[in-house]
Amino acid sequence: MPDQSAPEELKAIAPKLVEVTNDVLFGDVWKRPGLSPRDRSLVTVSTLAALYRSEQLDHHLGVALNNGLSVEELSEAITHLAFYAGWPNAMTAITRLKKIADERAPS
Q1: Of 22, 20, 17, nearest to 5 (Cα)?
Q2: What per-residue confidence (pLDDT) applies to 49?
Q3: pLDDT (0 to 100) of residue 7
Q4: How many Cα atoms sit within 13 Å of 85 on the Cβ side?
Q5: Which end of the chain has less neighbouring CB within 10 Å, N or C?
């Protein structure tokens, strides 16, 4: 899994939040052996979509693709979520996935 870290510019306003994000979340939790990075990405994207956390969703959709999930698999997960987390949440997530997939598509 490519290294992840909190945005460096946030250190000026929230140094401790950046520290625990980098050290605990990305430095420990994401590296635990109980789930693969791919599975952690699926859980993370699903949770962010379900909770309508759109600001974080874009980043984690990209991470999910980098961690081996396909656009088709993410689309299927988001479609499934529509029935449990709400149609607007799913439509927002799928719109963001399409944008990211389009940006990554070869020209």
Answers
A1: 22
A2: 97
A3: 79
A4: 21
A5: C
Maximal CA-CA distance, the chain: 41
Location of structure tokens 């990211």: 100
In our burial notation (b when 16+ CB lie closer than 10 A, e otherwise), range 13-26 reads eeeeebeebbeeeb
- Written as six digits, the tokens of 60 are 């984690």
Give 60: exposed, middle or buried? Use CB within 10 Å, 0-12, 13-18, 19+: buried
| Beta strand extents in 12-100 (DSSP E only) | none
Separation CA 54–CA 89 (nearest Å): 9
Q: Under DSSP, is residue 87 helix (H, G, I), strand (E, B) or coil?
A: helix
Model confidence, pTM: 0.88
The two tokens of residue 24 are 């605990």
Please give the DSSP secondary-structure letter assigned to residue 9. G
Mean pLDDT along residues 48-68? 95
Place 3 in a pLDDT band, splitting at 50, 70 and 90.
Answer: low
